[in-house]
Write a structure and sequence with these properties.
This protein is an alpha+beta fold. 39% of the residues lie in helices and 15% in strands.
Length: 279
């Protein structure tokens, strides 16, 4: 879709001015880049203007699935948000305060995991998740299961919604804990303090991961120790703007999960039909 098709009186008015619009700030005068849109915004925009609806269908044809389109737009919107090319307004349509940069070590406690002794059977098969990078799934925000469990007595337990970030080998694999958890030594965990939304910091680290990985590009075995991890800086808006960003990105994740479930259901249906054909 051409960027000019989504600008001028249609796009800018919808994205920045209309009461039922998204209230984005303009990147520059009369411009909101097409790479910043997410699927539902685009659908809503097209359905509420005289813009030719064929444009949306043409856009979908460029991707293998609606899920791929959503993932592309999520990546684009995250780049726009965290580089502050798009900002959210408050309920009175006023600007939130300027963002500040803070080191990870200044916004919470960082803990490096440790594997309990496998020789001591009493430490294992308890009610605490023992998470390793292998348990994490790319793109899945919440860690609800693990291959193994341990007893609480073997180490300091991480509370729910701790950010677990892989810092050895598979740099950047990450998740939020949902239950009391202990990790192995490949993972640095961040327990936030103060006015920081856990999911906001999760999304920020997700956006920063390519930059973090680049620091280890020349190493055969990438390793980011606790000290170095604590020095990475993240952009931090006010807590209210953090929550608006989380709500927005979480909505995209929900759409991605929904389309993924639909794809899986379609695959199962197709498989069932094929099995019936050869019965």
């Amino acid at each position: 879709m051409k960027e000019l098709d989504l600008q001028d009186k249609y796009l800018v008015n919808f994205f920045t001015e209309r009461p039922d619009g998204l209230r984005y700030k303009e990147v520059k005068a009369n411009t909101v880049s097409a790479q910043f849109f997410v699927l539902e915004d685009l659908k809503h925009f097209i359905s509420n203007t005289t813009l030719n609806k064929d444009n949306y269908r043409k856009l979908l044809r460029k991707f293998s699935s609606e899920k791929e389109l959503l993932e592309k737009y999520k990546k684009g919107i995250m780049q726009a948000i965290f580089s502050q090319k798009i900002r959210f307004n408050d309920e009175n349509r006023e600007s939130f305060p300027d963002w500040k940069e803070k080191k990870l070590g200044d916004i919470g406690e960082i803990r490096t995991g440790k594997t309990p002794s496998t020789l001591n059977k009493s430490l294992w098969d308890g009610d605490i998740l023992f998470v390793t990078p292998t348990d994490m799934v790319e793109g899945v925000k919440y860690q609800v299961t693990a291959a193994r469990t341990v007893n609480a007595s073997n180490g300091r337990v991480l509370p729910a919604k701790t950010i677990m970030y892989t810092c050895i080998a598979s740099i950047g694999k990450m998740a939020l804990s949902t239950k009391p958890t202990i990790t192995n030594q490949q993972i640095n965990s961040l327990i936030l303090t103060g006015e920081f939304d856990k999911e906001f910091v999760y999304y920020t680290l997700l956006w920063m991961t390519p930059k973090i990985q680049a620091t280890q590009a020349n190493n055969t075995l990438p390793i980011i120790n606790k000290t170095d991890f604590s020095k990475f800086k993240i952009p931090t808006p006010s807590i209210n703007e953090q929550q608006k960003i989380v709500d927005f990105l979480s909505a995209i994740d929900e759409k991605i999960e929904l389309t993924e479930r639909k794809l899986e259901q379609a695959k199962k249906f197709k498989k069932a039909l094929l099995q019936q054909m050869f019965v």
